[in-house]
Amino acid sequence: MKTEMNIQELISSGKLELYVAGTLSEREMGDVAAYAQEYPEVSSEIEKIERTMLDFLSPLEFSMGEPEKEKQINQIFEKIHGRDEDSQAVVVPMHRGGRAAIAAAIAALIVVAGLSVWLGLRNKNLNAEMAALQKHQQEMLAQRDQIEDGYNKVQQEFSVMRNIVTKRVQLGSVAGNKITDSSSYMLLYWNPTTGKLMLADAHLPKVADNQEYQLWALYNGKPVDAGVFDVKSDSTGAGFQKDISNAQAFAVTVEPRGGSKSPTMSNLCMVGKL
Amino acid sequence: MLETALTFQKELVSRLKEKDEQAFATLYRNYSNALISIIKQVIHEDTELAKDILQDAMVKIWNNIGQYDATKGTLFTWMMNICRNVAIDKTRSKDFKNQSKNQSLEASPESGPNRSVSPMPELIGVRKMLEILEPTHREVVDVVYMLGYSHAEAAEILNLPIGTVKTRLRNAVIELRKRFKHL
User: Fold this and answer.
1) What confidence tens digit (pLDDT) does each residue in A8-32 have?
2) Beta-bridge mates of residue B136
3) Do β-strands A239-240 and A197-203 pair in parallel, antiparallel, or remain unpaired?
4) Each residue of A61-110: pLDDT tens digit?
5) Listed residue (B165, B145, B147, B146) closest to B155, CA to CA
6) Which of B26, B30, B32 is most worth mutating to test chain A (most A CB atoms within 10 A of its CB)?
7) pLDDT for the residue numbered B25
8) Half-sphere exposure (Cβ direction) of A138: Cα atoms closer than 13 Å
């Protein structure tokens, strides 16, 4: 369970858009819902996505106006209340008939009652079985989605790494900086043709909770933002950063959480040339 | 202002669970037009039939509101699923099939798994809205938001990596948000 996933990362991942569409796996839906409960930034982002979706799904061409909506609402309540009335027993006046007819009717009633109890019990068992099967199937589907997601990620990473034009860039600690030391190191893979940039490994010290590391691509002396990342204790999972089309070197600074527009040079800690 | 909107949603849900008819009417006023788009996408029919199906779906929502679980998704998502299911059931019913026979062959709706991604004239309004997007963005919104496919399925249909589906959907929604000013 990811406990300290970067909120900005979640917001920009595209997951919230899928959450509003309701098409994530059951577990991921639950994860996002939990984040929404805890972080107002996440719930307000979800709210805005939902409003956008409502807007584009409600074009003027066939939108109902207020009077039409009120008419529909009334009809819906008629259906709701009508159903209640239908279920009430209807009293049928009894016709005069012979004793035999009454006896036959009672006998028939007993048979019907017995039959319906039996059918009811059978139905109940089948329903329970079906619900269990459905639940099982949903769990399997969710699991499959998770595995598929993981597999696709690995495959994407692998396809960058095995590509012959991909460059392997090692970053080392900048002399004299106060954040990292000679034991720190980082490994990037960058494909100059596709621009894909992958952070494969980072052994860096933990930074304060309100800060995170930001990666920069340097080209002709100008820094370009390549995305932020977190380092938990002493290791990090591999992951893609922003696409970078040109670079002569990569550098890392420590910035306030969410990243900065330009690097804070006094916090420059890691550098690697191509 | 957003805070109040969020509290409003929470309050709306708890009032609905207490079977508050005013809250239910508010729900209909807020979401009905969007839900009609979702239903039309399934039935490929005119708005009048979609309104009838929405009525049935709303009765179902009223009866089952106790089962809505906020820890599994938004109220809108839950309602959207109910509408899709009621609409799909309707396309399988005898009534619907008879009704469709009265139409010309070209206009006959597809049903079941062959839900098409092609533009349909009944949804022209929604299409126009989507035209502000570039085509690669438009198809992702179509498959995920209109047809309700999972991201894995969408990736397969569009022959894209899952990551690309997510990024494109995110960028498309950002474009739409600029347009509708929900930033």
Assistant:
1) 888 888 889 889 988 888 888 999 9
2) none
3) antiparallel
4) 678 888 899 999 999 999 888 865 554 444 455 555 578 888 888 888 88
5) B165
6) B32
7) 93
8) 13
**Nearest CA of chain A to the CA of B42: how many Å?**
14
Residue B90 sits in the same domain as residue B128: no
- What residue of B is the nearest CA neighbor of A27? B72
B163/A153 Cα distance (integer angstroms): 8
| B87 and B16, same domain (yes or no) | yes
Count of structural domains within chain B: 2
For residue B6, give Cα distances in angstroms to A23, A61, A240, B24: 22, 29, 33, 17
Evaluate whether A181 touches A173 at the Cβ level (below 8 Å). yes
The model carries a pTM of 0.53
Q: Do A240 and B170 touch (CB under 8 A)?
A: no
Structure tokens at A146: 């998770």
Q: Does residue A255 contact residue A241 with C-beta atoms inside 8 Å?
A: no
CB contacts of A51 in chain B (<8 Å) are 180, 182
SS3 at position A245: coil
pLDDT of A216 higher than 60: yes
Q: Is residue B116 assigned to a domain? A: no
What residues does A239 pair with on adjacent strands? A199
Q: How far is CA A203 from the centre of its chain?
A: 28
pLDDT digits (tens, 9 = 90+) for A96-137: 557 888 888 888 888 888 888 888 888 888 888 888 888 888
What lies within 8 Å, CB to CB, of B139 at 6+ separation is B117, B158
**Residue at A134: amino acid letter:** Q
* Substitution target from A20, A32, A55, A62 for chain B, most B beta carbons within 10 A: A62
Are B72 and B142 in a shared domain?
A: no
High-pLDDT (> 70) share of chain A, %: 89
Q: How far is CA B103 from CA A143, B96, B108, in A?
A: 43, 11, 6
Residue where the block lists tokens 């995170």: A212
Q: Give the Cα separation of A235 and A82 in Å (integer).
A: 63
Specify the CATH number for the domain of residue A235.
2.60.40
Among candidates B5, B40, B169 on the partner chain, residue whose Cβ is nearest the Cβ of A47:
B5
Q: Judge whether B115 lies within some domain.
A: no
Using one digit for the tens of pLDDT, what is the confidence trace for B103-116? 444 334 444 444 44
How many domains would you assign to chain A?
A: 1
Domain that holds residue A195: 167-273
